[in-house]
Write a structure and sequence with these properties.
Elements: H1 3-24, H2 32-44, E1 47-51, H3 58-67, E2 69-70, E3 73-77, H4 85-88, E4 89-94, E5 99-104, E6 111-115, H5 122-134, E7 136-139, E8 142-145, E9 151-156, H6 169-172, E10 175-180, H7 186-195, E11 209-210, H8 211-222, H9 228-242, E12 256-258, H10 262-278, H11 286-297, E13 302-303, H12 305-309, H13 314-324
Parallel strand pairs: 1-9, 1-10, 2-11, 3-6, 6-9
Antiparallel strand pairs: 4-5, 7-8, 12-13
Helix pairs in contact: 1-8, 2-10, 9-10, 9-11, 10-11, 11-13
Length: 328
């Protein structure tokens, strides 16, 4: 596909995204960055983890996005007493004929809202891990392929510890992005109370696209051009989390216990392509990579006790890497 043809394809399919943003905007005030990241996950086939205190419209945003898509949506409220069968389904015994039939769980949908995912115990997390990675669910001795597109949009509360479980590193790594949701501005909060004065949104979300259009848009996103220098920049950023000394970042010596996995490199390139598509471009830039690096890598690096003692968080470390690695 030529550059000109690709540009036309981007412009044609980006209307789907504009319609989605406009429709979600009927009930959501602000949080443009969160909506953009959810769309990136949708366009790249990557799962998204939203972290923020209660009341920041995380669940409302995901539900609104699902309503704007003519696809199947399910919501799972995770609790400490859940079983894997509550997510993937189970086999039900039929006493009349002495056989078992499969009853599928809520994971069999296009968009799955995993609310307060860090409340689920290890067995449930393991079942969810298979679904997220393999896009299949095993019930009894049989495996079932999940829907396409299939997207897990999860939320977690960072401050409440009672009744929660830390997410396994293997599962956290399966999320394309970890988005930290912040408080709205003063103007946005005023609009929120005006719009929600009656207790419910004043407008209803209408479906503006479907799964086929999303899959077609994904194919265009895959064709977005990424220059060799940008690809090398992605690798340099990720490798700097594993060996900061080799990257010439002496300040990070002893602060990183475990660096980002190769999935960080893969998802960083996919996210850069998605951002280029959202902005109507047929090519990704180093700025795309730099702006998305915190969301892609913050959940993929483990800091040492020294870093915690110095009050350094994952975003602080990533910020230092972004300032130190040469931008092409």
């Amino acid at each position: 596909m030529s550059v000109g043809d690709l540009g036309e394809q981007v412009q044609a399919h980006s209307k789907v995204v504009r319609d989605l943003v406009s429709e979600v905007g009927k009930v959501l005030v602000g949080q443009e960055a969160m909506v953009q990241r959810l769309l990136m996950g949708l366009l790249s086939g990557g799962h998204v983890l939203l972290e923020g205190v209660p009341g920041l419209a995380k669940t409302l945003t995901v539900r609104s996005l699902a309503d704007a898509l003519a696809t199947e949506f399910s919501r799972i409220q995770f609790t400490p007493d859940m079983l894997p069968a509550d997510v993937v389904g189970t086999e039900v015994f039929n006493p009349k004929d002495g056989t078992y039939s499969v009853k599928k769980g809520p994971i069999f949908a296009n968009i799955v809202l995993a609310d307060e995912i860090n409340r689920a115990p290890a067995k449930v997390q393991a079942a969810l891990l298979e679904c997220m990675q393999e896009q299949q669910a095993t019930i009894g001795s049989e495996s079932f392929t999940l829907a396409d597109p299939f997207l897990v949009l999860a939320t977690q509360n960072p401050i409440e510890q009672e009744g929660t479980y830390p997410l396994p590193e293997a599962q956290v790594d399966r999320f394309m992005l970890k988005v930290v949701v912040d408080y709205p501005s003063a103007d946005e909060e005023r609009k929120i109370i005006d719009r929600m004065a009656g207790g419910v949104p004043t407008q209803e979300i209408q479906a503006v696209t479907n799964a086929e259009e999303i899959i077609a848009a994904r194919e265009v996103v895959e064709q977005i051009f990424v220059d060799e220098k940008v690809r090398s920049y992605i690798v340099d950023l990720v490798r700097a989390t594993r060996d900061p000394a080799a990257a010439g970042i002496a300040k990070l010596e002893g602060l990183i216990e475990m660096g980002a996995s190769p999935r960080a490199s893969i998802w960083l390139m996919k996210a850069a392509k998605a951002q280029a598509f959202l902005e109507g471009r047929s090519y990704a830039t180093p700025h795309d990579v730099k702006s998305l690096a915190p969301d892609v890598m913050r959940h993929r690096i483990a800091l040492s006790y020294e870093a915690e003692a110095e009050g350094q968080g994952a975003d602080d470390v990533i910020g230092l890497i972004l300032d130190s690695v040469l931008v092409p």
